[in-house]
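In this section we walk through a basic example: taking a raw amino acid sequence and producing a predicted 3D structure, encoded as discrete structure tokens. The instruction is simple. Fold the sequence below.
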Amino acid sequence: MSEGTIDNKYSRAFGKIIEAIFEAEEKHPGWPTDPIHATAIIAEESGELTKAAIDFYFKRNDNEDEMMKEAAQTAAVLLRFMAEKGTYKQEKDQTTQGSETGAALAARETLKFADTMKEIKEQ
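The resulting token sequence is shown next.
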């Protein structure tokens, strides 16, 4: 691979990530403005990737495709997080949406992630 070019395997990977971004934006057009909630989404997707890797490694699933799908989704939400630079607010700037603040929503998402990881560990 020469300097300034991207190997074909990376081109394929980037293509899958771009597809995952379009799918995520269509399914979930909004993106949180509080960074805690936004990073909880990344952690949740990363947890799903970890679960897929565990399933593959321990031969619960012999196909790498689920890992690759989850990897693309994790990369997609990470890129969405980065693309929203400048839109994130600090607590004093947040407005309550419904009965749940952004921090409460992020805490709920983080607990959901922890429960998922506990279930994986128990399998």
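Looking at the output, two observations stand out. The two ends are 42 Å apart (CA to CA). The chain has four helices and no strands. In the next section we compare this with other chains.
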